[in-house]
Design goal:
Helices cover 32% and strands 22% of the residues of chain A. With 271 residues, chain A is of the alpha/beta class. Chain A has one domain: Purple Acid Phosphatase, chain A, domain 2 (4-Layer Sandwich). In chain A, helix 3 crosses helix 5. Chain A is globular. The two termini of chain B are 16 Å apart. The chains are: A alpha/beta (271), B alpha/beta (239). Strand 6 of chain A pairs antiparallel with strand 7 of chain B.
Chain lengths: 271, 239
C-alpha cells in the first residue's frame, strides 16, 4: 500500500491542487502533510481549507507556528537581512489575511504524527526549525531518527527532496580511568534507519520549478520522489496581485533556492 | 608547567566544600584553572555566602570560572529572567515548597550575576557544560547510548565534553566506529562512509567529588575534596 507525503505547501494553491491530482491519479488515498501550509504564497486560506476539507493529517510547520505564536524563532536561515525583511513582510501579510478559524486550525496542529514505524515531522523531531540537510553528519542524522524511536523519519523544511539510508553503523566505547574491574570495552551496533525528505509542493528549492513530494510503499519500503508541473504563471500572478514581494514570484519561476546571495554574510541573529 | 583543569559542580551553597576544594587545589602541582560547571545554588541551604565568595574570591583563591546549571536555570525562570516562563518543571516535580526554598536561598542581588553566566565554555577542543549541548537538564551517564553522546559532542563541535548534571564521575571514550550513508535525490545517488572520530565524554561529579583534567595527557583524575585522590592513571601524580 502506498502513502504520499507532502510538505511545505506555502499557500501555493495551483501547486497543491496539481500534487493532490497526481496523488489521486495513482490511486493513493493515504496522505500525510508535514506542515508549512502558509507563508510566501498568496492563497493561505484556500490551501488550509483544501487540506482541512480533505482531512489530510498534518503536522505544524515553522511558518504555521510563527503565524500563530508570533516570530519567536531564530530566522538566521535567511540568506540576508533583506530576505529576512521580506520574510517578515510575508509573515505579517499572512497573519492579516488568515481567518480566525484557520489560525485556530494551525494552532492546534500536532508537532509530529506517528504511524507504526514512521514518524512525520516538519523539521526534525527536536524542532520545526531544525534543518535535516541531506549531507549532514551521518551519526547526528541517525540520532534524530533513533532517539525519536522511529525506523523512517519523514521530514520537510529544507525544500529539497531526498531519501537517506543510514546502515551498517557501529560505535566502540571504552571506559577509561575506572577501577580495573569496571574497565570495559564494547562495540554497539547501530540500527539501519532512513530519513525521507518530502521536498516542497509550494516553493521548490531543488533547482527546478516543479512541485515535489514522495510516495512510500509501506510493504516494500520503496520511496519515490515525484515531480509535478503546475500552473506557475497563475501563482506568480497571484503573488504580484496580492502585493507580496515580486521576488517571491521571480524565485518560483526560476526555481532558485534563494532569491539572492547574502548581502551581509556577517549577519548574526541576536534574538 | 603542567596545565590542569579542576572541574567542580553541584556545590549548592556549600561554602565549606568549596573552601575544601580550594585548599586541595593549592596543594595540587601544576597550573590549575578552576571551572565551576553550575549548580552553585540549590534549595537546601542559604547560598549567599558561596555566591559572594565566587564573585569576590579571596586573594589566595583560585579564580573560579562559572557557568550556570540546572538550579540556576530554575531560579532565573522563577524570577522572570526567561520571559513569561516560570520554573514549572521544578514546581510540578518537587512542589511549591522547594520553589520557595530556592528563591529564599539566594538573595535577589545575585540574580543579575547568575543571569550573566554562560551556558558553557569551549576551551581548546573541549566543551565544558552542565548538562548536555541539547539541554541543561540532560543527564549524560555511562548508560547513555553512544549515539546520543556522539550527537551531543557533535553539536558543540568538540572532542571532549565535560558534563556535571548526572553527578557521576566517569570517562568514556568513543574509540571507533562507522556508518554508511546513501543519499538519493533528484541529482542521483551518492554513498559515503563516515567514521567516528576519537572523542570522549567526562562526568565530573558533584559536591565534594570533583575532577582534575591534565590538558597535556588527556588524563582525568577523580577526586574527593579533603581526601587523597585515587591514583588510577600511571604517571598522574598524587595529591
Amino acid at each position: 500500500m502506498n502513502q504520499a507525503v507532502i510538505s511545505c505547501l506555502h499557500a501555493n494553491l495551483p501547486a497543491v491542487e496539481a500534487v493532490l491530482k497526481d496523488i489521486e491519479l495513482q490511486g493513493i488515498t493515504n496522505i500525510t502533510c508535514l506542515g508549512d501550509l502558509v507563508g510566501y504564497g498568496p492563497q493561505p486560506n484556500e490551501v488550509i481549507e483544501l487540506i482541512r476539507d480533505k482531512k489530510i493529517p498534518t503536522c505544524q510547520g515553522c511558518w504555521d507556528e510563527d503565524v500563530v505564536d508570533g516570530l519567536d524563532a531564530c530566522d538566521c536561515s535567511y540568506p540576508s537581512q533583506l530576505a529576512e525583511k521580506r520574510g517578515h513582510f510575508a509573515h505579517q501579510w499572512t497573519t492579516d489575511k488568515l481567518t480566525k478559524e484557520n489560525k485556530d486550525y494551525l494552532a492546534n496542529l500536532p508537532y509530529s504524527i506517528r504511524k507504526d514505524k514512521c514518524l512525520f515531522v516538519h523539521g526534525s523531531p527536536n524542532s520545526q526549525h531544525e534543518y535535516l540537510l541531506p549531507d549532514m553528519d551521518a551519526f547526528a542524522a541517525l540520532e534524530r531518527v533513533e532517539n525519536a524511536r522511529a525506523e523512517i523519519l519523514f521530514c520537510g523544511h529544507t525544500h529539497q527532496p531526498y531519501i537517506r539510508e543510514l546502515a551498517d553503523g557501529s560505535i566502540a566505547v571504552k571506559i577509561k580511568n575506572a577501577a580495573p574491574k569496571d574497565i570495559q570495552e564494547k562495540e554497539i551496533q547501530l540500527p539501519m534507519r532512513r530519513i525521507v525528505n518530502a521536498g516542497s509542493v509550494g516553493e521548490p528549492r531543488h533547482g527546478g520549478t516543479k512541485a515535489t513530494y514522495v510516495v512510500h510503499n509501506e510493504v516494500t519500503n520503496e520511496v519515490k520522489i515525484r515531480e509535478v508541473e503546475y500552473d506557475l504563471e497563475l501563482t506568480c500572478k497571484a503573488i504580484i496581485d496580492a502585493g507580496l514581494p515580486p521576488i517571491f514570484a521571480w524565485r518560483l519561476k526560476n526555481g532558485f533556492e534563494f532569491a539572492e546571495q547574502a548581502e551581509d554574510a556577517s549577519h548574526v541573529c541576536e534574538r | 608547567m603542567i596545565e590542569r583543569w579542576a572541574l567542580v559542580s553541584g556545590l549548592k551553597g556549600d561554602l565549606d566544600t568549596y573552601e575544601l576544594i580550594q585548599k586541595d587545589l593549592k596543594k595540587t602541582p601544576g597550573n590549575i584553572t578552576l571551572f565551576v560547571l553550575g549548580d552553585m545554588i540549590g534549595p537546601e541551604k542559604n547560598c549567599n555566602r558561596l555566591l559572594h565568595r565566587l564573585i569576590n574570591p579571596k586573594s589566595n583563591d583560585l579564580q573560579p570560572w562559572c557557568i550556570y546549571g540546572w538550579w540556576e536555570e530554575q531560579i532565573l525562570l522563577e524570577s522572570g529572567y526567561r520571559g513569561d516562563q516560570r520554573a514549572e518543571a521544578l514546581r510540578i516535580n518537587k512542589g511549591e515548597e522547594v520553589v520557595k526554598s530556592l528563591t529564599n536561598a539566594v538573595d535577589k542581588s545575585f540574580l543579575d550575576w547568575i543571569a550573566a553566566l554562560q551556558f558553557g565554555f569551549v576551551e581548546l577542543d573541549c566543551g565544558l557544560i552542565h548538562g548536555s549541548s541539547k539541554d541543561i537538564g540532560e543527564n549524560l551517564t555511562l548508560d547513555t547510548p553512544p549515539l546520543t553522546l556522539l550527537d551531543r559532542l557533535t553539536r558543540l563541535q568538540v572532542n571532549r565534553l565535560f558534563t556535571a548534571r548526572s553527578k557521576e564521575q566517569f570517562h568514556l571514550e568513543l574509540t571507533e566506529g562507522t556508518v554508511n550513508s546513501e543519499v538519493e535525490d533528484l541529482n542521483g545517488n551518492r554513498k559515503k562512509e563516515q567514521k567516528v572520530p576519537q572523542k570522549a565524554v567526562i562526568g565530573i561529579g558533584a559536591g565534594k567529588n570533583y575532577t582534575l583534567y591534565d590538558v597535556g595527557t588527556d588524563n582525568t583524575q577523580f577526586v574527593q575534596a579533603g581526601y587523597k585522590s585515587e591514583k588510577r592513571i600511571k604517571g598522574f601524580g598524587m595529591l
